[in-house]
Design a protein that fits this description.
It is a single chain. This protein has 9 helices and no strands. With 204 residues, the chain is mainly alpha-helical. It has 2 domains: 54 residues, Homeodomain-like (Arc Repressor Mutant, subunit A); 141 residues, Tetracycline Repressor, domain 2, CATH 1.10.357.
Length: 204
């Protein structure tokens, strides 16, 4: 970050650069993009970007960190106000789908790079994604504790099933040649997941 000056202006410019990075990475792919292309998209000089981000990889890692931190900050209070078990599981699925439905460009970047093979990028992205996986596991484990899900449910495996199912839905939505609402998949997938986790008969 630049030293001194107007913090609000600096913050706005950084946000502009990150927004431009999402658009450029979605169109050209991270590996096919340059800092100069991001600068043009943001309407700033290429040198200006380096005042905020030393390397291109810092842009991608920061995108994951900022967006997932903001997402988690929205998730936790909403989840804490919901009933443990089926209701909370459904709400987490809703929040997950809504997060990606907000922006196809951001969804495209996330879906491609959440499995990033580059070890340097992967190391930067992993903590943010790992924190979300922990939250998923927490929601499922709490459901097991109150008897909403099967007592012998493998929480780690259930977490993978939850994320994998929603991840596949988002990928299909991005690749689909027909237009449909991502949120239209919520009830079917939430119901399938609840039943798969051994939801009690009183569940939906």
């Amino acid at each position: 970050m630049p030293k001194g000056g107007d913090t609000a202006v600096a913050s706005d410019k950084e946000a502009r650069i990150l927004g431009a990075a999402v658009r450029v990475f979605a169109r050209q792919g991270y590996h096919g993009s340059t800092m100069a292309a991001v600068a043009r998209e943001a309407g700033v000089a290429t040198g200006t970007i380096y005042l905020y981000f030393e390397r291109k990889q810092d842009l991608l890692v920061t995108l994951f960190q900022r967006h997932l931190t903001d997402y988690m900050d929205r998730c936790r209070p909403a989840l804490s106000d919901s009933e443990v078990g089926i209701e909370r599981l459904r709400l987490l699925a809703q929040l997950h789908l809504a997060f990606f439905a907000e922006s196809r460009e951001l969804a495209t970047v996330f879906q491609i790079h959440i499995r990033e093979a580059d070890p340097i990028l992967a190391d930067g992205i992993r903590p943010s994604v790992g924190a979300y996986f922990d939250l998923i596991a927490e929601v499922i484990a709490d459901g097991v504790k109150v008897g909403a899900f099967a007592s012998d449910l493998d929480v780690r495996l259930a977490r993978q099933v939850f994320f994998g199912a929603l991840d596949e839905i988002v990928t299909g939505w991005l690749r689909s040649k027909r237009t449909f609402s991502l949120m239209s998949t919520l009830d079917p997938v939430a119901g399938m997941l609840a039943r798969g986790f051994g939801a009690t008969p009183s569940g939906p």
